[in-house]
Amino acid sequence: MTAPDLTSGDLWTIAVAVCCSVACGTIGCFLVLRRLSLLGDAISHAVLPGIAVAFMLTGSREPWAMLGGALAIGLLTAGLATGVRRLGRLPEDAALGVVFTSLFALGVLLITWVAPSIDLDPGCVLYGLLEFVPLDMVTLIGADAADSARIAPGQFAATPTLEVPRALLWQAGLMLGNLTLITVIFKELRIASFDAALATTMGLSAAVVHGLMLTSVAATTVISFEAVGSILVVAMLVAPGATAQLLTDRLGRMVMLSGVLGASAAIIGYLLAVWLDASASGMISVVAGSQFAVAAVAAPRYGVVGKLIRNARLSQRIAREDVLGLLYRVHESGDSRPASLPHAQVLRAVAPGFRSRLACWQLRAAGLIQGMSGDELSLTPKGVEQAAQVIRAHRLWETFLSRNLPLPLDHLHEPSERLEHFLTPEIQAKIAAEVGDRSDPHGKQIPSP
Amino acid sequence: MDTFLTDLARLLSLQDANTRTVLLGTGTLGLAAGVVGCFATLRRRALLGDAIAHAALPGICLAFLVVGSRSFPAFMLGALILGAFSAGVIAMVRAYTRVKEDAAIGIVIGSFFGLGVVLSSMIQKRPGGAVAGLDGFIFGKAASMTSADAIATSLVAGACLLVVAALYKEFKALCFDREFAASQGWPAVALDLIIMALVCACTVAGLPAVGVVMVVALLIIPGAAARCWTDRLGVMLLLAGLFGLGAAVIGAALSATLPAPPGSLSRGWPTGPLIVLSAAAAFLFSAVFAPRRGLIARLLAHRTEIVAP
Fold first, then answer.
1. Where does B128-232 have alpha helices with state H?
2. How confident is the model at residue A261 (pLDDT cuts 50, 70, 90)?
3. Pick from A177, A192, A180: nearest CA to A36
4. Could you give the C-alpha distances from A351 to A358, A392, A415, A422, in angstroms and in order?
5. Given Cys at both, which of A195, A230, A364, B51 links A44, Cβ 3.0 to 4.6 Å?
6. In this structure, what DSSP letter does residue A134 have?
């Protein structure tokens, strides 16, 4: 199977999908951060009756009427959810569920009622009509817009006129609108997203910022649904933002990253859909979901694998330091050199199993201990130096604890055994300055730094 | 209108075998979903059913691709597997990443349903794909239920109700005082998983009647309506079951008897929206008229308080 050649119609469609994905992805970050992700889902389902009512009132598919009706219902959804929550004393998510399923049901019935006179069925609201984007062109530059023969895709390229799909005008306008809004009120959005109370004390009205954001989400949902379908809107409002959240801690970067992820999902998804001859908006949603899955597994800082690796490395360092500490105590007590301990005894004392074996192996490779496995282990001169630092941290903390807390002597070892791995040289220096670093509460000498 | 009344009379007298089938299937399902949904809402998992339902669509498509024909048990099995998988994905995202549950649900809804749309668009283009009847699963089409389907649905519903009856005490403790449940030595995590499994079973069993997009309403709305009338869990479950049963029966009956919209190609009215709107009407009525917790009762109580201090 080879990839079919892309026509200019495909390119226009990709442009529409990219604009929509960027528009959704950027504003969606704030939904994700404020834990309102499902509001996009709810609004995109709830706009259905708005569209149907607008059609019944105006009797046409006039875009402005539909947009007005849908936007009104979209904003109403947020209000209704609050109303239902208070009325029925329900949790927030349940109230949202009551509202959007009921509105969607109403919309399906209304559309079934008016459907014979209008080529709109509930299905196309869900999946959108991305494939039909190039069939509805408007002329930007040039005269012959009335010539209906040139709506066939691919024909317009040779003429000097510039025709673009009607959907592209809407989506590009939407994208620019969202980006402008985010740029202009970025500071306000940031404060309101992370600390609504602070925003209010600073004289910003969190409610106004929230309202602007909701309006933008509603407009995004409503403008996008006809071209790309509500399912893609739901995916694009949430998935790129959540993916970006796994990749960065800075809001500005998160918004930009989310836009880029959305755009790339649109391009890759569309190409895959053409290749497999499948629904484009469905495929773009799948790609956006896959991006999230990859990030959740492999993101450097917040991915599952990264976390596992960091945890394993930390446990390994702790095991190594425990071996060093153990051997140092033997080294310290023994008069005859070299003071050593059987390998098996070291393994038993530190941690059972693979981790302590690996620790001994690593220490031997680094030249800090000597002796074969199954044999006696002892510290090398270099190992003594390193081990002294672990013991210093341990005994400094014991001293600090006994000076500041009324703990019996036999209660000092346990906490210090844990904290010795996390005391940086700076903290050690501060503790030493505070309590001195001659000897610990048990009378043992504290090694010098 | 005459035909409508005749249809209604036939329906109410249960003469028609097909009507009996549909009412049996949707009614038992509404009952079970209403009861199970109460626990889902109380455990703050109301919208999990939405994610499970959307994830069921690719499951149904995959089942069709594997089996190669329209087979109700295979569809349900596929839906159940992917539904449970999606619930697992959401739980894992919540446990192992910094992404919150609402975003996890949104991502699952979007991408799994997207996958379903992709698969169904590919199936429609295959020879014989049009007979798959996948569209019926999106908006619900109870009329196409066979008697075997209805019996299977009511068996699932009955099993769910039995589990609730058997574990009622444990579920109650889990919903209102998790620590107490744990201190009794009951496995809180396992109980939570059982609730999830019940939600999953009810959602999937409800797909043929109500459809992917709206089935979550069967779980949430009857419980929400019942909550207005009582503060006691037992009464709430009973009422929610009755509301669910009533909404399902009324919706299915309307769908079967209402004259098709003028000019439509004999499509009739989809069952799902009618069931959901029946449930929504019950909620609205309850929220306004219920004694003590209803809107009117609360307004009156407020006024009395102000007038007579």
1. 135-139, 147-166, 168-176, 178-183, 188-210, 215-227
2. very high
3. A192
4. 11, 22, 17, 19
5. A230
6. G
Residues 6+ apart with CB under 8 A from A294: none
Q: B77 or B212: whose pLDDT is higher?
A: B77
Q: What was the ipTM of the complex prediction?
A: 0.87
pLDDT tens-digit readout, A361-393: 888 888 888 876 667 888 888 888 888 888 888
pLDDT tens, residue by residue, B46-85: 888 899 999 998 998 999 888 877 777 888 899 999 999 9
Question: For A176-199, what is each residue's pLDDT tens digit?
Answer: 999 999 999 888 888 888 887 787
CB contact under 8 A, A285 and B111: yes
pTM (2 d.p.): 0.81
Whether the CB of A37 is below 8 Å from some CB of chain B: the reply is yes
Instruction: Tokens for A218, please give them.
Output: 């509603």
Helices (H) and strands (E) in chain B, counts: 14, 0
Q: Which residue has the tokens 């730094």?
A: A449
A150 — pLDDT class (breaks 50, 70, 90): very low
Which residue among B99, B109, B112 sits closest to A242, beta carbon to beta carbon? Answer: B99
Domains, chain B, in order of start with CATH, read 18-305 (1.10.3470.10)
What is the C-alpha separation between A65 and A107, in angstroms, rounded? 16
**pLDDT at residue A253 in the model:** 94
Residues from chain B that touch A115, judged by Cβ atoms under 8 A, are: 261, 264
pLDDT at residue A89 greater than cutoff 50? yes
d(CA B108, CA B124): 24
Contacts of residue A1, Cβ cutoff 8 Å, sequence gap at least 6:
A275
- How far B276 CA lies from chain A's nearest CA (Å)? 6
Work out whether the CA dihedral B165, B169, B175, B178 comes out positive or negative: negative
Contacts of residue B174, Cβ cutoff 8 Å, sequence gap at least 6: B43, B181, B186, B188, B191, B192, B195
